[in-house]
UniProtKB/TrEMBL annotation, chains A, B, C, D, E:
Protein name, as recorded: Magnesium transport protein CorA
Keywords: Cell membrane, Ion transport, Magnesium, Membrane, Transmembrane, Transmembrane helix, Transport
Feature: compositional bias, Basic residues: 1-11
Lineage, opening ranks: Bacteria, Pseudomonadati, Pseudomonadota, Gammaproteobacteria, Acidiferrobacterales
GO MF terms, alphabetically ordered: cobalt ion binding; cobalt ion transmembrane transporter activity; magnesium ion binding; magnesium ion transmembrane transporter activity
Reported function: Mediates influx of magnesium ions.
Gene3D superfamilies: CorA soluble domain-like, Magnesium transport protein CorA, transmembrane region
Amino acid sequence: MRRLLKKRSRKAGLPPGTPVHIGERRSETTELRLVHYEDGALERRQIAAVEEALPYLARPGITWLHAVGAHDAERLKRLEQLGLHPLVIEDILNTDQRTKFEDYGEYAYLVLKMLSDGTEDAIEIEQISIVLGKNYVVSVEEGPSGAFASVEALIDKDRARVRQSGADYLAYLLLDRVVDNYFIVLERLGERIDALQDELVSGPGPQTLRLLHHLRRETLVLRRSVWPLREVIGGLERERSALIRPETAVYLRDVYDHTIHVVDTIETFREVLSGMLELYMSSSTNRLNEVIKVLTVIATVFIPPTFIASVYGMNFRHMPELDSPWGYPVTWLAMLGLGAGMLAYFRKKRWL
Amino acid sequence: MRRLLKKRSRKAGLPPGTPVHIGERRSETTELRLVHYEDGALERRQIAAVEEALPYLARPGITWLHAVGAHDAERLKRLEQLGLHPLVIEDILNTDQRTKFEDYGEYAYLVLKMLSDGTEDAIEIEQISIVLGKNYVVSVEEGPSGAFASVEALIDKDRARVRQSGADYLAYLLLDRVVDNYFIVLERLGERIDALQDELVSGPGPQTLRLLHHLRRETLVLRRSVWPLREVIGGLERERSALIRPETAVYLRDVYDHTIHVVDTIETFREVLSGMLELYMSSSTNRLNEVIKVLTVIATVFIPPTFIASVYGMNFRHMPELDSPWGYPVTWLAMLGLGAGMLAYFRKKRWL
Amino acid sequence: MRRLLKKRSRKAGLPPGTPVHIGERRSETTELRLVHYEDGALERRQIAAVEEALPYLARPGITWLHAVGAHDAERLKRLEQLGLHPLVIEDILNTDQRTKFEDYGEYAYLVLKMLSDGTEDAIEIEQISIVLGKNYVVSVEEGPSGAFASVEALIDKDRARVRQSGADYLAYLLLDRVVDNYFIVLERLGERIDALQDELVSGPGPQTLRLLHHLRRETLVLRRSVWPLREVIGGLERERSALIRPETAVYLRDVYDHTIHVVDTIETFREVLSGMLELYMSSSTNRLNEVIKVLTVIATVFIPPTFIASVYGMNFRHMPELDSPWGYPVTWLAMLGLGAGMLAYFRKKRWL
Amino acid sequence: MRRLLKKRSRKAGLPPGTPVHIGERRSETTELRLVHYEDGALERRQIAAVEEALPYLARPGITWLHAVGAHDAERLKRLEQLGLHPLVIEDILNTDQRTKFEDYGEYAYLVLKMLSDGTEDAIEIEQISIVLGKNYVVSVEEGPSGAFASVEALIDKDRARVRQSGADYLAYLLLDRVVDNYFIVLERLGERIDALQDELVSGPGPQTLRLLHHLRRETLVLRRSVWPLREVIGGLERERSALIRPETAVYLRDVYDHTIHVVDTIETFREVLSGMLELYMSSSTNRLNEVIKVLTVIATVFIPPTFIASVYGMNFRHMPELDSPWGYPVTWLAMLGLGAGMLAYFRKKRWL
Amino acid sequence: MRRLLKKRSRKAGLPPGTPVHIGERRSETTELRLVHYEDGALERRQIAAVEEALPYLARPGITWLHAVGAHDAERLKRLEQLGLHPLVIEDILNTDQRTKFEDYGEYAYLVLKMLSDGTEDAIEIEQISIVLGKNYVVSVEEGPSGAFASVEALIDKDRARVRQSGADYLAYLLLDRVVDNYFIVLERLGERIDALQDELVSGPGPQTLRLLHHLRRETLVLRRSVWPLREVIGGLERERSALIRPETAVYLRDVYDHTIHVVDTIETFREVLSGMLELYMSSSTNRLNEVIKVLTVIATVFIPPTFIASVYGMNFRHMPELDSPWGYPVTWLAMLGLGAGMLAYFRKKRWL
């Protein structure tokens, strides 16, 4: 099961802005991919160090520097050469960040969580850092998720909107991919909830409760990842950063609506799961009721006659009933009558 | 049972603004109805393509273009010729939208949910898109619900208010119809809750719990559909769009009040249903208590005397009581006394 | 039991502003009472139609037109002659309104709920509409409640404050009466909750749970009626309408405080009732525990010895114990010892 | 037990501003104490009527008029001579007020609740009214609580801060005393909660649940009294009244912090008590589980062997086992084996 | 267990601003450490009284006065010589403060809680007071926690950022250390919750519930300490104090993000613990169900046959079955058939 908190303690006591990686290491190496494009031209290469990107920034057009792997403090520290504040570098390396947006004037820093379906029905969470400058975008992801392949594909097309737009549109595309991924994760989660719901109605087994609990915890994790994004994009839309041009703002509003839709859906999941837990508990209590009624019926029907039979199993010498020829059949009648009478009485009193 | 989320995943990775239909197909074809009216004149026709509507827009008067069927991406894409943003076209086709209002300056886009009672006691949800321009309204619904027939009837009347008013009043009428439908759905839901309440008081059966759960989930779905409309219309009223004239604003306020009334009622339903679940659970526990008391009464009355009878059913050679002529009647007395005494004792201790 | 929603469906599809009565009919006829007063003069009469009131409005002084009965669409529709918007007339007739205040510039419209103790311990809800103009007040109530008799009595007194004040003070007086009524209803509800609390402590009976549930639902209804009044009067106080003079504002603040007090008290009732339900449930579980312990004590004490007795009731030919003269007393000792030992063991383990 | 609401109904129908006492009478007479002080001078006397205070107000220095007893409508009505609005007088007499602050320009009116530990572990609530004028303070308490004795003692000291400060500082001192009292009440309540917590852990008795419920209700009452004070003092601090000088504002901020601290603590108490109730309920269910397991163990071990013994207690003529010399010991083995086997089986299945 | 509230009552009735220590005494003596630094110079000494610090304040550079021990009212009262308001001194001594920030213009006062893992799995809470002046920082902690040793170490380094920055950066460093400590405490708490979660899944023991309750209460305490810090730092960031320079503001935003992250994590812990309690309760109920089913199976299988055996154990003279050679085997068949039949019937009815 996913641990609740990442190890942050190794950073305690270090001066602010010290670049230290926090979190698991999700890729072997830190790969740096550079894409430079203008209206007519496109260049794409793998680079070894951040320094190689600097000449591109001086040229017209948009530069996109994408790093896969967030653990290599040495390499990522060089991002300072783009003018980034040490606290930004620190945050890129610390993968236990809360989703946030920070405008530093010359550039803006956005950190958010990408979700994907992992193995064993657990949702994988990966941290994405996006730095948006005037004419460049730096993005850092923890491992090779391939989530942004479709963005690269878009840039490839000569007449795509992104080729005519600024760095802000590119950043929007990355953001949009992340939010689109939320829908995919939600879709699968929704399917699992629906399946559990069906199971609950048709007849819950011993694993139902555990699965219900597991899904609730997944929803909680989801919510914790997505909820702050709502404020972040909402704030982005309201207090317009100078880095975001008006024609991109329409797209931001769209991704904001998607985020609210995601948040809403998560809340609905939570309520549905709560309702299902209550239904499960109520059904459980009902079944208990039924079983206890069985016990009571048996006790009602058999224990009193057994008492009578025991009485006439006693070995007293002077038991006049024993000698009577009617003793046996009358006792049978008494026993049957007693059982039936009690059943009838309890029925009438609506106890059964 | 209604699935929790529509399939959005087929859209993942496509560039923003790609028109793709999401959701079920609710009508065979996409029908386009055009209504053009001025103070004195009225024209009404079925058109084959959006292009046929363009000449009407150039003429004075109001043009209403109503599309039934939201799945035909090819046809609806042509709405771009009215100057709509690709994101608007995308949203019209995606029937998994959250209720929202977007002001694009030249026109405004409102998407909301229409509810109606479906078969099998489930509430049907249909998406309505309304585009309000200076002198036109475009509305798109998913299937032939007939909800706007009364609006067409109003336009037919020569001296109706709508004939003297602008496109904003027409859009208001459509909105008003949708909200009126909410009341009808609520009314039926309320009746079902009241009936369940009666059933709960008179004596709940095994299906009561399931029905209770079902109604709660319906209420949840309802709330999810209606809740955002509250903010949307509230925002509409506050930050007046230039497309809405002051004389129409009074009507918007009215429909806003209705929406709040709907939201309030849904909240009340939720609380009533929660209270009913609690009552159900408490009654259930009470019944369990009663049944277990029956068990205890029986055990109290019969088990100890049975023990005594068993004792004198033993076959020991030397059991002096067995030979005594008083043995049998005294044993009877002892058994009766023991049962009665225990009952009395537990009564006194208030255990029964 | 009160139904959750009034029939609104008969209005669906009608053009906005159509005057249709919604709700029950609470009085036979619609009675119109007119009171006209100036500093020195007072005139009071029953009128047959709204038109008769028009001359009074042209004269100096304040005119109060009070209608008892909200079902007579024909008659009340004539209020349009005072310049009221059709939507206001529609709202006066629709007794399923949510409490609201609307400022139309020339006049303001306030609709709220009056509560009173009805028969069968249910709270009666009646809708009150108040229209405040420059020099007139129109008030409409559903039935002859007599709630405003004390206001008429006040006007009767020559030197009362109301005679020196404007129409706004008269409207305030009506509002104040309605809010005062809330306290009376709350007082009775509080007494019933206190009585139930006492019953809960002294020993709950089978009707306790039902009464608890009933009171919770009453509180819910109350809350739904009063809650919006809080915002309404609060808003009234903040964004001063031109119709309300500063010297009346102090009184409005007072009635606002009362409303908050009512709302607070309702919330307290809700929490008290929730606490009582929890106490009831916990006590119930405790009693169940006690009863089951009785069962266990009996089983512990009697079932094992009964087994031993049964053993020596077997009819095997070769049972050496049976022939021993010590067999019987030793068996008794064994049986007593077994029962006592088990009891002691369970006691020690704190299972009993 | 404290009743939930005071009798307000006797006021219904009276014109606004009618001085009527609502609440219990807490002191025999209404005592009026007057303190007048300047930097160098101090005068203190008991007065018979409000009129005697008027000359002091005309002199330089600060006048403090303190009334003990809020039931004497006749006497307190004379406060009008200080220029108080009739609604203020009405509110002073009505001891069922919600905490509030009202600025009337010339003077301000603050009403709040003083708490103290009463007899029988119930918290006593008393209403304090404070009127702050330019150079005077009027305070009214319901009974002789002695809460303000320390303020009088402070004034006695020639060089105390209060002697150099204005009426606002005196009002602050009174307010501060009331809030200080909250801490004392909270302290005792906290001790009782801690004691109950210990009792819960060491072993709850039958009175635990009742005490838990009682403490929750006390906390609810507390919260209802203190909560509004938070907004009141917060508002006081924000929108500075002209009656409060900047140097006093620092002290108000201090008392505001205390109030928030009180509110926070009450919320913590509420959560702690909720957690304790849940713990109590869970422990209760656990104990039930244990007891039922005892029942099951006994039934498992003894009922099947008893059945076997009963079989061989039958009196059929042809029962070959009875004549076998091995019959008896084999039956014993069978009975022991059956009991042990079932126990083992259930253990293995983890049912026990 | 930690008591809920500290003894504040000894302060009741004292004039505001009286320096009285409230809380436990956590160190033997009050130690005063003075650090004075400029870009090139650094001086560090232990001082005996606040007065010794005054000359340093007159010199250029930053002075940091750190007091360990908050109980010595005499000594700490002398802080007044730095121009601190008596209320600030009072608050430093009262260790039962709520986290708050107060701007006094010349200086600002921040009080917050430092958390650390204490013995016996309980979180230790210590109060930290920070006074930020133009060129000095005064910090007071209750005991020798050593939490700020790393800050001293930073100052030691000649080229550290802090040596080039103002007093505000030093104050930030102290604040940052406190918030970093929260993460360490959270990390350990998270580990304990995870361990409990594992225990809950693998099989809860009797101590699970108590531990669950303990962790919930710890989380509650944590939340109470940290929650107000969120507003405090948030407010600090928004309404910039003149004491905080723009270049430090970036760092404050960083520590604000950390605080929000802490608050979020605590909320998540709360929800996780609630979910675990619910899972525990549901599993408990399920186990009860299982055990009761065992009881029912046994009763079903053995009680009815036992009744039959008892019947033929009766000693009536005229029992024809007893003499029949088929009596015994037929009875066996009947008994087996009865048990099996009932089992089958209940299975079919899904009662078992």
